[in-house]
Amino acid sequence: MGEHIHVRIWDVTGVGDDGELLESAHCRCGATWSRAFRPDEEAPEG
Questions:
Q1: Which end of the chain, N or C, is surrounded by fewer C-beta atoms within 10 Å?
Q2: Which regions of the chain are under pLDDT 70?
């Protein structure tokens, strides 16, 4: 069986109470990630 490489597909899912953008991602294997950042800051890597 070969190695699996996560393919993260990011979507903006909303705006938090403090104005931060909320994003979530998923991979076809079922793994999920989430992150939040302020739009006036540089977007996080990942």
A1: N
A2: 1, 41-46
Radius of gyration of the chain (CA): 13
Residues 6+ apart with CB under 8 A from 39: 19, 20, 21
User: Rounded to an integer, what distance in angstroms lies between the CA atom of residue 37 and that of residue 5?
Assistant: 25
Say which residue the tokens 């109470």 belong to.
17
Check: CB of residue 36 under 8 Å from CB of residue 43: no
Closest by Cα among 32, 33, 30, 13 to 21: 13
pLDDT of residue 9: 86
DSSP label at residue 8: -
Overall pTM > 0.70: no
